[in-house]
Structures
1.
Amino acid sequence: MAAKLYDTQAKEYRDIRPSYPPELFQFIASKTPIHDLAWDAGAGNGQATISLAGIYKNVIATDTSQNQLHLAPDLPNVRYQQTTPLMTEAELHHNVATQSSVDVVTVAQALHWFDISAFFQQAKWVLKKPQGVIAAWCYTAPEVNESVDSVFNRYYLESKPYWDPARNILDDKYRSIDFPFMPVDGEVHTGPFKFKTEKLLDLDDYFAYLRSSSGYQMPRKKGVELLRSDVIEDFERAWNEDGNAHKIATFPIYLRIGKVGNPN
């Protein structure tokens, strides 16, 4: 479902979505003792891949959407690979990496669309034992100011009946995920750990962000337009209230991170 949605608007998704802060990657890197090989699963257009490539010697970035991968930057230490949603061990070996060879597996804003338990088994297969790390994070709705956020909250509630059930995992900030990994060194739990990223937007950018989300696209495919003229007018009033055309939107980020440990 998600792959088809984002496949048709890959360029728009790349242009309007926020990037991730250096602090997030520094935290993840500090928990991985060796920085030889990273697997960025659900890499999309490479938003997280770029930062991983600056830390890890080699990165394999996979996605089910070839359209998204075509928009990713060409980097000398990154190999992009389209895959099926679920892979056998033989396919993992061929398309991703050999068993127990990966230092870190990352999933940025995509885990809620996966078959999560099956993916975790794949991650355990490729990760080095016992210190291999898995890090999965999501970001939630942009926070602009009280007036804009108030209109957004009404819009968001109206969109909920049309959600794919996977979006509830995102809305819960990944807290409800059964995360079968051990806390990384120096931590007593697997998260979510909170970070944030910011993006300067004007109102057109903000609308483009809303339209890029599954929360908008899914009802639209059913003939329901959430950004009706009256909703747009409410957003315009709230946005223009302070006289500033451009505003900083803050996206809260929630990270689950753990290490694989020794197999039973």
2.
Amino acid sequence: MGELETEKHVQYILAIEKKDDFESLVMDHLRMSGAYWGLTTLDLLEKLENVDKEAVVSWVMKCQDDCGGFAGNVGHDPHILYTISAVQILALFDKLDVLDIDKVSNYIAGLQNEDGSFSGDMWGEIDTRFSYIAICCLSLLHCLDKINVEKAVNYIVSCKNLDGGFGCTPGAESHAGQIFCCVGALAITGSLHHIDKDLLGWWLCERQVKSGGLNGRPEKLPDVCYSWWVLSSLIMIDRVHWISKDKLARFILDCQDKENGGISDRPDDAVDVFHTYFGVAGLSLLEYPGIKAIDPAYALPVDVVNRIFFGRKGLP
């Protein structure tokens, strides 16, 4: 098995912020998510000190709208997707205290619909991704009591399919990304008993292909990002021993750009910060040496989650 090119990945992430090219331009609207992917990767690799914390926190707060939600960048519209990224970034830096917690939590709670689902923003798109984000974000802010958790859970359960998986809405196709969102939300709310763990575990372990990589749906190509979506779900339902961890780790390491840093979706493809994060996060779940442990439900380093829920120093 190859080695993780840690230093090159760190330099790749640090260099992204300085780029001024077409790729940066077309990603301008989701810069908040990009910042979360890059900064969490640095923290997992224990290199977060290379970043100007105050500058990042200042920029994050400039992205907050008067409604309480956060946008993907300064001057853009707020959305629940970028609100969770903003909260996660502030959590990484132990700066949640700069937030008006009521303002942010009221924005999220206001997106819950009568059936328990959540809209992504004022325009009303509904998706189980948004259910997970709302539950995860409010949990991190200690404000889960601001929503109807029972209705939220019942809506997620209504999206469960006969194959054991979950879709974006009731009756929608099972997809590994949506499964992570639903399993993560059910884990955070203590509702994993709604899942048929053997049935879902079988569907998830079937995502591993001959190369060792994981795909998101049957008959699709493997992709490094599913090293997170599938693996975290398997861990939360205690079925991770149903796949080959060594083969998966080898697949992720084969997707590295060993000269310039970064990780791609598949070997020899172009790298990006999204797949770099999910590759490193996947290796963290696989307990690869030299990488901090990541929480499979909150998608944050375990020490950050411990600090939020168990006090300043967290657990050993």
3.
Amino acid sequence: MSNSSSYNEFLLLAFTDTRELQLLHFLLFLGIYLAALLGNGLIITAIACDHHLHTPMYFFLLNLSILDLGSISTTVPKSMANSLWDTRAISYLGCAAQVFLLLFLFPTEHSLLTVMAYDRYIAICRPLHCGTLMGSRACVKMAAAAWSSGFINALLHTANTFSIPLCQGNTVEQFFCEIPHILKLSCSDSYHRELGLLVFTASLGFGCFIFIVVSYVQIFSAVLRIPSEQGRHKAFSMCLPHLAVVSLFISTAVFACLKPPSLSSPALDLVVAVLYSVVPPAVNPLIYSMRNKELKDALKN
């Protein structure tokens, strides 16, 4: 029985073995990565520098952009480097770092999206209480709670996963280190504790999802009661970008977790992983800025 610490490196799943396609993959990911850096960087800069955007909605959007930068920087640069240098290797510590950062950033983003749904609910359904319930101190506390919960989640899962003995080699069937694929390398019956932790985390995530759904049911009920068409349009404009980001984030993650085993294949797993780990951080800035006049004006200035 070999413990995971006996491996100096893991082998990641390659997108292709053809040199020309490896270079194409490198250029494609480079374009996506630069777009994500530019889009999220501009949003962070605009919100930080324009005092008109120092509101709860934009404060949480700034945090979301930081998380998106972190998540795409965890997976894409290593994949690009592997394609460029025609290798599949990632060091043991590098793999552990990827697992920790992804389990830190993705749950934090899910928690933050839940907080943003609450912010939209307060702004539309209880506007008179907005200054009290969503003051600067309250916003900082909610954001800190989201980041702290993500950190604790990552610490528990990473420590538990990399304490499990591995008996099935060191080949990870994904283009980045991910717990389900690492557990496939473990010895039989040695991963039940981590599965229990994953179920617990998934239950908390489902609770956040229910909270978002209930919030938006009440939001849309309130919006439809607004007498003026202009008022309804303004309320929908506030909510639709967040709803689009939530839908993209949750739908891709749920499909990745719940797709039938009969559909599972290395090629499909790669496509699904790109959809939930690479696409959202790149398109979120576009979704939020597309119809946001305040953000566009701040970016112009």
4.
Amino acid sequence: MGPGCLCSSPSPRIPATAPPPPRRRLHPSPGCALPGPGRRGKGRLSSVSGSRRGREAERATASLGDAMALWWRRCCFSRAPAFGSLRSLLEAEGPRLGSGSRAGRAVGGAEMHYFLGRSTVLSFPKIRSIFLRFHHTTTSRTCSCSKTVTDEKFKDPFKLGRKDLKNLYEDIKKELLVSTAELREMCEYYFDGKGKAFRPMIVVLMARACNIHHNNSGEVQASQRSVAIIAEMIHTASLVHDDVIDDANSRRGKMTVNQIWGERKAVLAGDFILSAASVALARIGNTTIISVLSQVIEDLVRGEFLQLGSKENENERFAHYLEKTFKKTASLIANSCKAVSILGCPDPKVHEIAYQYGKNVGIAFQLIDDVLDFTSCADQLGKPASADLKLGLATGPVLFACQQFPEMNAMIMRRFSLPGDVERARHYVLQSDGVQQTTYLAQRYCHEAMKEISKLRPSAERDALIQLTETVLTRDK
């Protein structure tokens, strides 16, 4: 079935649709009545006949949909503390879905169906299709067999960015030239070409999209490509340091640097990669770019400290989790996108578009990563499953599951340190709708990223960045 099929079954691992109904339904808050057709006339239309009955039913259905959407917004998030804080957080910092747009109504309908226990919801590809038609970026036609055919100009991002990423890892290794053979081997260990190169891909596509928006030039400048290289180097250095902090034994399907060479040498290797990235950054010779990308390093450190701590107050946990997620993951993508936009276009509005796109995609990427920790096996991930629980971390699926199983609060506060805590917590998460809720939140961030990038002039690169949001949601490793 096509990506826009309304009746297609979601992936058993990561649902690409809005989540199915929770096992334990959230009830409306006191004093808030569930809207329904039976308020007047006891829910019957027996006095209406023929065509009039049909028209009345259609009007009742439409008004019921609006009422249910309104009820959902007023009631469902007010039931649980974390949902309430999440709602206010999303209003202040996260995706703001306009209720007046077609896309906003589509997502609102998906939310409504989810909380009212309906099974037929709009899939993410369908929401994307509606959104694209609304912004006139591509054309779609839906046939009677529910297959959606999309315009060919909607490019595969990895094919489109391949030219600019050719010899990426060879160029990174040139930045890491050292006389000591062991240090060189350690530093080059993860630059073997087997990574996803997700961050450099976003950076070069954003560079092209911004260049086209400014002066219709699709070529990536040398300084913009340097930002892509620097982003991958900073990311890899953070992985080396994370593995030391977490005492990890596998990464990308092979042993970690700290397991092979020891923790002390691993720390030094990460430091060296970071210093080489700083030298490459200084070589660009733009103080604004240096300031923007230096913020990434500060955020990485602050994010790690946030991860080492925890919040006793349930209302603050989700805000703490999302702030940590931004600093550790999304900041690098957001600021790298902003850097190439500065190099390619003088308009501050474009800089903000690039930053917001990177921020929202980066948060969605990490949310799905946290989902995969519960839904994928170690062979697929290239690292141990349930690793976050074993490290004492309460990620999105755990925080959502805690609303259905309050007994998890004690485990969260003791960081799953007692025997059996990890297994019990995993069981609760899989029994709850935590995975689906986290996936749905990632969809909302991707929707916001789509809305931002669609403000740029139409181009194949811009469409590829939109396509990339779906890739983030449907990946399995």
